[in-house]
Amino acid sequence: MNITPPDACKTWSRLAAHAETWHGVRLRDLFGADAARGTAFLAEVPGVRYDYSRQRLGAVTLRLLASLAEERGFGEWREALLAGKPVNDAEKRAAWHTALRAGNDAPLEVKQALSKATDLVESIRTKGQFKRIVNLGTGGSDLGPRLLADAFGDDRLEVRFVANADPLDLERALQGAEPASTLFLVVSKSFTTSETMTNAQAARRWGGKHFYAVTANAEAASKFGATEILPLWDWVGGRFSVWSTAGLAAVCAMGTTKFEQFLAGAREIDFHFARAEPAKNIPMLMALAGLWNTNFLGAATHAVLPYAHALRLLPAYLQQLEMESNGKRIDRAGKPVAYATAPVLWGTEGTPSQHSFHQLLHQGTQAVPVDFIDIASDEGLSANLKAQADALAFGAEEDGYPGNRPSSILFLETLSPGNLGKLLALYEHKVFTQGVLWNINSFDQPGVELGKRLANKILKGEA
Fold first, then answer.
1. What is the SS3 assignment for 26?
2. How many domains does the chain have?
3. What is the spatial distance between Cα 362 and Cα 427, in angstroms, rounded to a whole number?
4. Which residues form the catalytic set?
5. Statement to judge: residues 149 and 22 lie in one domain
6. How far apart are CA 343 and CA 332, in angstroms?
7. 459: pLDDT confidence band, cut at 50, 70 and 90?
8. Are residues 130 and 59 in the same domain?
9. Which 3 state secondary structure label does DSSP give 365?
């Protein structure tokens, strides 16, 4: 598979020359000259529609970007990802998170783990032994389950999440709880993650009596005293693990039926990603537009604005997914890159964001590409969202709004577990596609480890 740098590809220099022709092009003029632009730059799957007509690109741009993907060997990389081949070359293993939501086609070990998790959750939600569930994890063992539980949790159980080693986080999660009716879920692939194990030990000192573990280190979990142990596998990266047993707390919060719908939605996107042509392939289009903005239009950041309170945690989830995956300056050949990789991702829910930082989006000195997440069933929120997207694109020069600022809209027909599964899978495949285009490994995180090593030295008095 191709691991040459992208700026050595012929299409890269063609894209750079093409970008020069876009300096004076205005989105207002593009829409004025082409009444069909709003429908031409559109792709959809059932339940989700991607409108990128307000991106500063055209048909020629898309053809060049698709040509770059072909030159980078994208098709071969995609096939390897979906087949469970070792695309994580740094650690010599697969990144096979799609197998976690493959339904009847999932590996037997995944089916067995899901069946066990389902049985445990049904017991927890019906017997009433536990009044509070406390998830002890960090990073991918926290952000994904927390997002799901916040979006779709019901009133059957009180589910809390603790990710910070600051004792106050656990203290607040345990306010009003009783040890006899509190279940702790310790989620750590290695069962050595410092923040998670610090909180697990503190929970035991508090008087915790009930611990379940989700881990690849069953021996350590058993020694700790976990009475139920669910497996994780080395081919599941933390930030891609919400589909696995690592999502146990979310399943407790939302129930097994909603979780199965969540998995099924992602599975639909996996099929779409594998089969759709580039011009209609939503994750590819998201990736190509992002690369165009980052590498050829000079965007350094990217905002994600979900216009739904239930998705208020989505930007935090995507921050880890994108920046820990592609925020790297060393390529697959071990050489420093000479081009930008992942932009800084940030954002929060709309409409509160309109009273926080939209001033910068509209009139700041840097253009910030935006992904708006729209729930079509809420007309009031949709109207606010479309107004913001139009104002960014078209501006009002007489009032000091320059416009010509790129954005895309991801429309969800309804806010459902299935559609959220589709949304998260779209971003996962976008991240993978950009990793291929930038020639970086999206599935390791060496920058995370350095800080941990230095912190341990400081604690031991060695630094």
1. coil
2. 2
3. 25
4. 324, 355, 452
5. no
6. 19
7. confident
8. no
9. coil
